[in-house]
Amino acid sequence: MPRMGRVVLPNYPHHVVQRGHNRQVVFVAAEDYQRYLVDLRELKDAFGVKVYAYCLMTNHVHLLLAPGDSVAVLGQLMKALAARATRYLNRLEGRSGTLWESRYKSSVVQTDAYLLACCRYIELNPVRARMVADAADYPWSSYRSRVDDVADSHWLDADPCFVGLGDTLTERRRRYEAFVREAVCADEIRLIREALQRGQLTGMNRFVDEVERVIGLRIEQRAQGRPRADSRK
User: Which pLDDT score, from 0 to 100, does residue 22 have?
Assistant: First the structure.
């Protein structure tokens, strides 16, 4: 079988990262972040893509997105987001040229085992980068929308694993907050990071086997291990 290129699957979450061209800064002022989120909110509805988590860093973005039945909309959404942000910054700074890398990275995520782990990974980016001490202190991620009532933030989609955390929104928020505050093992971080960098699957071996059968392509790098059994409690 031929080796796998980028895999996009309908109705599955995808961990997506897009970086600034040559890692240049793409967000400077609060208005830059706000504008991107406005565009994300508008375009996700236009393309029918669910947004489960996001984190906007100074020179890149992390998104957890799920296309519907049409896989093409994922690439269309990312292209439209990049084009809008480029036009906005070029107009603001009186410049021209490319703002983003031409190709974003993506990894299909196994929903039951890794969806919440990927949300946590994304929302803890500013903590790992030592920009803030607590995820709740960073205003440009989805974390505060998940654990608190934040104005104009109810456009974020509720992923099935988050819904399964409890019978009420209050209970789900409390359990997710506790989940994020747990110590995260280095293996989990490495697995998510390497799957993204290689454009491969974030999941267990049985998930890899399942996707190989569906798409008819060989996936060489296989994830090992999984989040702890209590990670969704």
Answer: 85
Contacts of 202 (CB under 8 A, 6+ apart): 15, 107, 108, 109, 110, 114, 118, 191, 192, 195, 196, 223
Between helix 72-93 and helix 30-47 the angle, nearest 10°, is 150
Task: Give me the number of domains the chain comprises.
Answer: 1
Compute the Cα dihedral for 128, 64, 111, 230 and give only its sign.
positive
Asked if residue 213 is part of any domain, the answer here is no
CATH number, domain with residue 193: 3.30.70.1290
User: What's the pTM?
Assistant: 0.88
**Residue 209 resides in a domain:** no
Q: Is residue 147 assigned to a domain?
A: yes
For residue 79, the SS3 value is helix
Q: Using one digit for the tens of pLDDT, what is the confidence trace for 190-217?
A: 999 999 988 888 888 778 777 877 776 6
Task: Print the domain residue range for 136.
Answer: 14-203
Query: Could you tell me how far CA 116 lies from the centroid of its own chain?
Result: 11
Report the chain's terminal Cα–Cα distance, integer Å.
40
User: What tokens does 69 get?
Assistant: 């039945």
Q: How far is CA 82 from CA 70, 99, 180, in A?
A: 20, 8, 29
Q: Is residue 214 part of a domain?
A: no
User: HSE of 79 in the Cβ direction (CA atoms, 13 Å)?
Assistant: 6
Query: Is the per-residue pLDDT at 120 higher than 60?
Result: yes
Residues 66-75 have pLDDT tens digits of: 999 999 999 9
Q: At what angle do helices 169-181 and 111-123 cross, to 10 degrees?
A: 70
